[in-house]
Predict the structure.
Amino acid sequence: MSIGFASMIMRDGIFQVLIIAAPVLVIGMSIGLVISIFQATTSIQEQTLTFVPKIVAIFLTLAFFGPWMFSSMREFTLNLFRLIPEMIG
C-alpha cells in the first residue's frame, strides 16, 4: 500500500464525513442564527428558546436525510471492503 493510496482513502473518508454532516450542521446553524436574531430584537434571553427548536430541527433533519446518510455510509464502507485486496497486495 502506497502513501498515495492511503492519502486517497483518508481524503475520501474526510469528504464523506463532511458531506454526511453538512445537512444537519447547516440546518442547526440556520435555526440558531434565526433564533439569535429573534432574541436580539425582542430582548428575550431565555436559554431554552435556543435549544428546543434546534433539537427539534436536527431530529427532523435526521429523519428526513437519515436514509440517504445511511446509504451513503453503507456505499463508502462497501467500497472500503472492496479495496482490501489492493491494500494487501
Summary: The chain has one domain: 3-88. The mean pLDDT is 91. Residues 3-88 form one domain.
